[in-house]
Amino acid sequence: MHAALKNELQRQRQGIELIPSENFVSAAVVEALGTTLTNKYSEGYPKKRHYGGNHFIDEIELLAIERAKKLFVVPHANVQPYSGSPANMAVYFAVCNHGDTVLGLNLPDGGHLTHGWKVNFSGVFFKSIPYHVKADGYINIEEVRKLALEYKPKLIWCGASAYMREFPFEELSKIADEIGAYLAADIAHIAGLVIGNVHKSPVPFAHIVTTTTHKTLRGPRGAMIMVTQKGLDKDPQLAEKVDRAVFPGLQGGPHDHQTAAIAVALAEAMKPEFTDYAQQIVKNAKALAEALMKNDIKLISNGTDNHMLLIDLTPYGKGKGVFIQEALDLAHITLNKNTIPADPSSPFYPSGVRLGTPAITSRGLKEKEMQIIADWLAKIINEIAPRYSLPEDKTKLQYLDNFRKEIAENQIIKQVAEEVLSFMKNYPLYDGIEY
Ligand SMILES: *Cc1c(COP(=O)(O)O)cnc(C)c1O
Q: What are the pLDDT digits (tens) for 16-48?
């Protein structure tokens, strides 16, 4: 265990982290997570607990709630969901019955599993209707309206795990209002951008807002569910319904060490420096997009409004994502294979890679450095993507084994790996933390 902890810290320090759902929390957040609060049971809510000894836990949870309400300007916040998926599950449990119809962005088009994907609980227990993005990467609002009028969903989701444009909260809220549906905005990816005013807030438009706390918000793994004034106007019981859905509906005791760390992260997000950080995330993403396109790398939607980019690898063939992810991993550059809209391959062997700037912006990288990273990415994509293709018979895993043996000896990858290691020495991380 000691060796693995040490190695993982070193991996985080020395590499270029481009996974857009990841970030580097502050040392204060790490410290809060590592406290003895993990020992406590506190089922229930502040001042209404099922166990004794919760006086200080109440103070901690109330701090987190008050900070969330102030930061996002909402009348109600629940900070207990263990993570983003359980938070979304609680939304279904609060406003839907088993078998109700729901509308969400299709997973291969960038939507999240919990927005109705067929193998997720949300697609199994509910009648889920997917909407899509257009060829230009923007949500197809006309299709959403058509599907909403036809199927009359009880709940419409707005949010994504791979979407490069600003969400059309206002347009979707009009559609939801037209048919009397709840609109839930899942801002897991963009919560930090909303705080930094570089993405429109969903609060005036949605009834419910869910978010993870560990992506651009730069807190611990965790999530929050917020009820807006618009939500309370539609349903005065909505806040109680959400709270009851989380506990006792879905969860037992909250993770109090996580709640404390959320409170710490929210305090950090209230500082003016956080706004600067959020703005720099978007500046970096735009600079990275420009630099990649100058290198003839194709991007879905030809750019980005937020923190995220999706590289379309289909000019080299289909299903190339896995090769690029693994080759870059060897060069200490981390990103993930991802489906692209209307992917010609499959979710396990998708035709794109997804990347983003929240984590490298936390490391202190700016626009100038995006050019350097884009050149490394282009070098490896041009080296690897034309050379390797999925065998027609995908059970032939031998092919991937051979690929791995070959890239371990690839001189271009080795050279980039060395350059990355020496480059990242300029950006210290977690000074003072040693395992
Ligand atoms: C990451 C994400 C989630 C879920 O988060 P987990 O903490 O991994 O369960 C939910 N919705 C969206 C849009 C996400 O991107």
A: 999 999 999 999 999 999 999 999 999 999 999
Q: Which residues are catalytic?
A: 41, 43, 186, 212, 215, 221
CATH class, range 27-269: alpha beta
Mutate to test the pocket of ligand 1, among 186, 187, 214 (most ligand atoms within 8 A of CB): 186
Domain at 272-424, CATH from 3.90.550.10, 3.90.1150.10, 3.40.1410.10, 3.10.50.30? 3.90.1150.10
The answer to whether the 27-269 and 272-424 domains have the same CATH topology is no
Query: What is the 3-class SS of the chain, one letter each residue?
Result: CHHHHHHHHHHHHHCEECCCCCCCCCHHHHHHHCCHHHHCCCCEECCEECCCCCHHHHHHHHHHHHHHHHHHCCCEEECCCCCHHHHHHHHHHHHCCCCCEEEEECHHHCCCHHHCCCCCHHHHCCEEEEECECCCCCECHHHHHHHHHHHCCCEEEEECCCCCCCCCHHHHHHHHHHHCCEEEEECCCCHHHHHCCCCCCCCCCCCEEEEECCCCCCCCCCEEEEECHHHHHHCCCHHHHHHHHHHHHHCCCCCHHHHHHHHHHHHHHCCHHHHHHHHHHHHHHHHHHHHHHHCCCCEHHHCCCCCEEEEECHHHCCCCHHHHHHHHHHCCEECEEECCCCCCCCCCCCCEEEEECHHHHHCCCCHHHHHHHHHHHHHHHHHHCCCCCCCCCCCCCHHHHHHHHHHHCCHHHHHHHHHHHHHHCCCCCCCCCCC
CB 335 less than 6 A from any atom of ligand 1: no
Q: What is the mean pLDDT of each run of 10 residues along the chain (435 residues)?
A: 98 98 98 98 98 98 98 98 98 98 96 97 98 95 98 98 97 98 98 97 98 98 98 98 98 98 98 98 98 98 97 96 97 96 89 98 98 98 95 77 95 98 97 92
Domain boundaries, the chain: 27-269, 272-424
- Measured in Å, residue 107 CA sits from the centre of ligand 1 at 12
